[in-house]
Amino acid sequence: MSKKPELHSDHENSRRLIDSLDNYVFVAFGIAFIMFISFIFLSNKCYLKYHIDKYSIFAPGTDIDKIKENNDLTFNQNMKEEIAGIYNNRKDHYDKNITSLSSVINGMGICCLLGICLLYFDKRDEIEFFGVSIPFKSIFLLLPVVMLYLWLSFGFSLSTAIDSRAVCYVSAVKLQYFSEKVIELEGNHPSKDSTGTNPTSSEVISSGSIDTTLAISVKFNRDYSKIHALDDNGILDGMANVYMGLYTDTVYTYFYNFLEGPPPMAKKDEELNMRTLIKTTKDKQIVAVAISLFTVFGTLCGLTIGLLIALLLRFQRVYSNNSNLTVALTISVVTFLGVTFIGFLMEKSYLISFCAYIWLVAGIVLWLYSIKLEKYAQAGEPLIKLSA
To answer: Helices 299-314 & 324-347, crossing angle to 10 degrees?
Structure first.
């Protein structure tokens, strides 16, 4: 007869789980340290900065000066209508992204609460969920799967929402510019000339048919711009304020005055990078928003990563008796998480400090759980009583 594999004792499983947790604590803190060091020493480099020219509404090669200097009423009306269409279409896409992102964040919060309950409360044989009995130990595998899915959805939704926010912002600024210019041109525009047609404003001005000293100039307060219709009172507002500078007069003026320049890696963009723009804002406001952004959303993301790893380790070391399959599963998931961060930072490298904070919180979660289990082990209490 074949012998069943010998199960490890409760104490041995507890000890092995603590050792695994300590290893992953080192990994999480190591990743956070590398990211923080990279941020400190490379923050002045062009590729770690937010490039405002990236979201220029005009394609490279467009003669922007001629667009700005064109005083033809019909041309400016057409530009206003075209940009309004761009804004409305992208605004619909942005609203859908915000709704999706909000749902994902709420789901992550619920999963974190469930994860804490699973790790810190005693075992039950099964759990009733909407009338369905679910084996308790299976939750340690199912919940990490859900959390991993939510994490991927969060990354994709956040990246897309940031891009949509920037495109809507630029469109809104341009829309305000052309709206004001159309009002100005219409105010300086006679109804008909001798031929029965509407002359362009440039023709009217050059012919001297109006007194240019009486020209109407309309400028709306920036607080009434459509850019404020993009506020989500959540993570996107924090990102737009701390990293993108979309609440600063400098960025608004940059796009309103058609200062878009060459491609992102050109010298002009290096001079107008986000780090320079942030210095023009009130430091207290940036610090306050940054603290809120990191404390609320950064901590939630860190809890998600830390609890996901802890739940997998608990399942691996206790319920599956440290099988090769579950060991490979845990290593694969942690590796995959690292890859998701690399992919995200390749697209949004200026968020490296936020990502570093996430791994720091994840390491703290694993470390605190390890301390809790260490106290149990020193007291001679088993982590969990294995079924016979």
So the answer is: 160
